[in-house]
Design brief:
- Belongs to the complex I subunit 4 family.
- Keywords: Electron transport, Membrane, Mitochondrion, NAD, Respiratory chain, Translocase, Transmembrane, Transmembrane helix, Transport, Ubiquinone.
- It is a multi-pass membrane protein.
- Its EC number is 7.1.1.2.
- It comes from Coquillettidia chrysonotum.
- Helices cover 75% and strands 2% of the residues.
- The chain is globular, with a radius of gyration of 21 Å.
- α3 packs antiparallel against α5, α8 runs antiparallel to α10 and α15 packs antiparallel against α17.
- The chain contains 21 helices and two strands.
- The protein has one domain.
- It has a two-stranded antiparallel sheet.
- A hairpin with a 2-residue loop joins β1 and β2.
- The protein is mostly helical and 447 residues long.
Length: 447
């Protein structure tokens, strides 16, 4: 694993050269190719070096992190053109990628916690340094305090486990069953619930998304929300008995919250806020599937996390493309885009179809697995799940039809054909989203 970490460390050296922006982006895709070719994925940790190794759970998320970070640079051409602290910007993205790879490849619970929290720092700098409005300061404070306040109990819980088990290695902790302590159960999972985010502790996410630049929104939607799911996958092996006793509470909140958030999506006027709230609804169903602790639930949650990372990131790119031309994210002003940008209407349709889990996207596979697991856990969840699925389709169709159809507010009578870079950016989001379903047993293999 260290060889890939060293490759990313050498990107810092490339950053000192002038006009190295596109070089760094191409090298990220090269690193991605090397990872695909060299790591033989397994249900157990492989490629172990020092505290770092990869297993089936972390492998897909590391690939997603490198992929999204490469696409972040591709989407941020405005920063390149305006030379807006370019070297610092690319430094932050490389640093964030390094922290994410450290997080997903850590074999020790404490090392995981350390890098899990460190990934917050470059994200905060991206929002504060390259955000749009003055409200980004408030968004940064929300992000910082929500996540840090919930993480302190996790640190105490980790040290408590170390005192009892004399180890923090994931492999050894998999065989440990913790005592029936409610405080320990809450402290071990609450930080991950905030990071996902679960309904009731989700207010930081729309704030951060709306104020973040396109790169910040992509990494937040693409990878940082998945840190919570990954953490829960790791710690639930130690909390199985307590999970059976108390998980019904989180499943109820997630399903009811998903329906309420869907209603909030239907009355949003900001395109970014609508997609951000839809992420809360999707992560709610992922959390419900995880909490059932069944094979279908765990594999479905993992699949939907990968799918949502690609789909949601692509939708944020589309919003940014129209924002760069019209100077507004308001749904009242972004009407009739079919007349203004006809070529992008197809991409809006394809990615909106992915967002509502239409075939043949990977979202469909994840949602079918999650529906299986949650309904088998309790028949009462049928009501919540049916409403959630219906309103998910409703707000996605609202987003598509309202933005693409109707009379343009500006009375625009010219076309924007788009740039090759933008088409490539959207294609690189959509292609893996639809090709991964062909090899669907890949997402189920680690179980």
């Amino acid at each position: 694993m260290l060889k890939f970490i060293l490759m990313i460390l050498f990107l810092f050296i490339c950053n000192f050269y002038k006009k190295s922006f596109w070089l760094i982006q191409n090298l990220m895709f090269l690193i991605m190719s090397c990872m695909l070719l060299s790591i033989s994925y397994s249900s157990y940790f492989v490629n172990i070096s020092y505290y770092f190794g990869v297993d089936m759970i972390s492998y897909g998320l590391i690939l997603l992190s490198v992929w999204i970070c490469g696409l972040m640079l591709m989407a941020s051409e405005n920063i390149y053109k305006n030379n807006n602290n370019l070297n610092l910007f690319s430094f932050m993205i490389i640093f964030l990628l390094l922290m994410l790879i450290f997080t997903f490849s850590s074999m020790s619970l404490f090392m995981f916690y350390l890098f899990f929290e460190s990934s917050l720092i470059p994200t905060l700098f991206l929002i504060l340094g390259w955000g749009y409005q003055p409200e980004r300061l408030q968004a940064g404070v929300y992000l910082l305090f929500y996540t840090l306040m919930a993480s302190l109990p996790l640190l105490i819980g980790i040290f408590y486990m170390k005192n009892i088990n004399f180890t923090m290695n994931f492999i050894l902790l998999n065989f440990v069953e913790m005592h029936n302590l409610v405080f320990l159960y809450l402290s071990m999972i609450f930080a991950f619930l905030v990071k996902m985010p679960m309904f009731l502790v989700h207010l930081w996410l729309p704030k951060a998304h709306v104020e973040a630049p396109i790169s910040g929104s992509m990494i937040l939607a693409g990878v940082l929300l998945k840190l919570g799911g990954y953490g829960l996958l790791r710690v639930f092996s130690m909390l199985q008995k307590m999970g059976i006793m108390y998980n019904y509470f989180w499943i109820s909140i997630s399903l009811i919250g998903g329906i309420l958030v869907s209603f909030m999506c239907l009355r949003q006027s900001d395109l970014k806020a609508l997609i951000a709230y839809s992420s809360v609804a999707h992560m709610g169903i992922v959390l419900s599937g995880l909490m059932t602790m069944t094979m279908w639930g765990l594999s479905g949650a993992y699949t939907l996390m990968i799918a949502h990372g690609l789909c949601s990131s692509g939708l944020f790119c589309l919003v940014n493309i129209s924002y760069e031309r019209l100077g507004s994210r308001s749904l009242f002003l972004n009407k009739g885009l079919l007349n203004f940008m006809p070529s992008f209407c197809l991409w809006w349709f394809l990615l909106c179809a992915g967002n509502m889990a239409a075939p043949p996207t990977l979202n469909l596979l994840g949602e079918i697995s999650l529906l299986n697991s949650i309904v088998s856990w309790s028949w009462f969840t049928m009501i919540g799940l049916s409403l959630l699925s219906f309103f998910s389709a409703a707000y996605t169709l609202y987003l598509f039809s309202y933005s693409q159809h109707g009379k343009s507010y500006f009375g625009i009578n010219f076309f924007s054909l788009g740039l090759n870079r933008e088409y490539l950016l959207l294609m690189l989001h959509w292609l893996p989203l639809n090709l991964l379903i062909i090899k669907s047993n890949f997402c189920m293999l680690w179980i």
